[in-house]
Amino acid sequence: MYEFLGAEPEPPIIRSETSLKIIQEPRLQRLALYWQALRNGRRLPAVSDVDPVDIPWALSRVFLLEAADVDGGWRVRLAGAEIERGFQRSSLKGVPIAELFEPETYPQVRNRVDACVRGPAVMYMHGRIYRAANRMPVGGRLQLPLADPVTGAVTGILGMSDWSRSTDDQAQDRLEVYAIPVDVLT
Hints:
This protein is of the alpha+beta class. It contains 3 helices and 7 strands; from the N terminus they run E-H-E-E-H-H-E-E-E-E. The chain has one domain: Beta-Lactamase (2-Layer Sandwich), CATH 3.30.450.20.
């Protein structure tokens, strides 16, 4: 069972799920199905299995994180144009994810990445997905673990953010976080 992750000012709700059916956004569902197909009987697909040609509909909002050898953190390997625009950068390639968030909110982001790796688990977030970056879009985010084909260790994360609107509504000022352990998926 997963514990509550993060701390104030954003105490996320962590729920352990057993199915990808919890995913509400059609594009995120489509990416999850693509990732499932890449598994091809294995526990996890490899970073090298991901082919941008297969997911042209997702490219503007997709991101790929890779483990950083030096500091034990994670870096952006690639990010779609809408993700880069959201962070007001012309390129995120090679940027440590710690640099993208304020020091007081980065631990929540890092905890979600760590939960994806440790499980390994598919992480799905729904609500104000850029809350840690103090932005208002409401939608979903998906983080899908990728493994080294030789060792099986998680070395990458394929992700996508899909938002449809922004809100100033306090009722929408929440984020639900779901962990779906890979080992329960068929």
